[in-house]
Amino acid sequence: MSVSSVAPCRTFVNCLVQFPKPLVAAVNGPALGLGAAILALCDVVWANEKAWIQTPYTQYGHTPDGCSSYTFPLIMGPAAAGELLLGGRRLTAQEACAKGLVSQVLWPHTFNQEVQARVRELLAVDAQVLKESKALIRSWSRSGLEQTNERETEALKRIWSSTEWTDAVLQYLQRPQEY
């Protein structure tokens, strides 16, 4: 990553924050880093029982992104968020559900069929009702999310422009990974 990569990341996250229709995530494997962080920006998150979630930011010299420094403590409390964002702890789908990051855990063998059926149910609801409902549910957090996204991307700029970050990434990539 380079400092110039920050702008697309900021834009992407703001698009999720500002998206007027319900966002649904179906986690059918590992959700790592930004992929894990943005789950908290979704309106519904279904996860395969074998899925897991991890944000090993500090291990590779990174700071939180995807508004996770705001959403994770809000959803799961500061201590659990600290384990994830500072310690890089891996959560199972069941743990993520118990902490409120995942809506429901589904069986691996029927995961795709379950997700498709549930999406069809959502699509059967009046689109205007869905948009208005989402606006009401998320209205309290939009400005806070946008401000957090700005602060996180500014921190990433500072981190990504340092030589220490390059060294940390290289060390992280040389470690054996357990996926």
Task: Write structural notes for this entry.
This protein has 179 residues and is mainly alpha-helical. It has one domain (3-165): 2-enoyl-CoA Hydratase, Chain A, domain 1 (Alpha-Beta Complex). Helices cover 54% and strands 11% of the residues. It has a three-stranded parallel sheet with strand order 1-3-6. A three-stranded mixed sheet has the order 2-4-5. Helix 1 (6-18) packs antiparallel against helix 8 (142-160) and helix 3 packs across helix 4. The radius of gyration is 17 Å and the shape is globular. The model has no long low-confidence stretch (mean pLDDT 93).
Which features does this protein show?
single chain, 179 residues, mainly alpha, 2-enoyl-CoA Hydratase, Chain A, domain 1, three-stranded parallel β-sheet, three-stranded mixed β-sheet, 54% helix, globular
Present the secondary structure layout.
Layout lengths: L5 H13 L5 E4 L2 E3 L1 H4 L6 E5 L3 E3 L13 H9 L1 H8 L5 E2 H6 L5 E3 L4 H13 L3 H12 L3 H19 L2 H12 L5
Parallel strand pairs: 1-3, 2-4, 3-6
Antiparallel strand pairs: 4-5
Helix pairs in contact: 1-8, 3-4
Low-confidence stretches are none
For the record, the count of structural domains works out to 1
What's the total number of strands?
6
Shape descriptor reads globular
Strand order across the biggest sheet? 1-3-6
Q: What's this, in brief?
A:
The protein has nine helices and six strands.
